[in-house]
Amino acid sequence: MTDEILGRTAAVMTAIRAKLAARALSPGEKLPSIRRFATTMGVSPSTVVEAYDRLAAEGLIRARPGAGFFVSG
Q1: pLDDT tens, position by position, for the chain (73 residues)?
Q2: Angle CA(20)–CA(58)–CA(33) in degrees, nearest 5?
Q3: Which stretches within the chain are classed as H helix?
Q4: Are 1 and 54 in contact (CB under 8 A)?
């Protein structure tokens, strides 16, 4: 991965972490769809997928197959 892609992924992760810290997202709440958040952030959907996957690996969010990503409790 290039530094530019990693930077974009980090920016998406930072945006989600900021929403969690500000309590704009609460436990159990659904995160924006990958496509919608990619448009909001001005990045490709694959960048959002990478960011969501990393946040899920950290335990901050969790994936529900077929339903999306949700804030962990």
Answers
A1: 566 667 999 999 999 999 999 999 999 999 999 999 999 999 999 999 999 999 999 999 999 999 999 999 8
A2: 55
A3: 3-21, 34-41, 45-57
A4: no
Residues listed for the chain: 73
Token pair, residue 34, equals: 């990958």
Q: Which residue has the tokens 């992924």?
A: 9
Please tell me the pTM assigned to this model.
0.89
Q: Give 32's contacts (C-beta < 8 A, 6+ positions apart).
A: 40
CA atoms within 13 Å, Cβ hemisphere of 32: 17
Cα 24 from chain centroid? 14
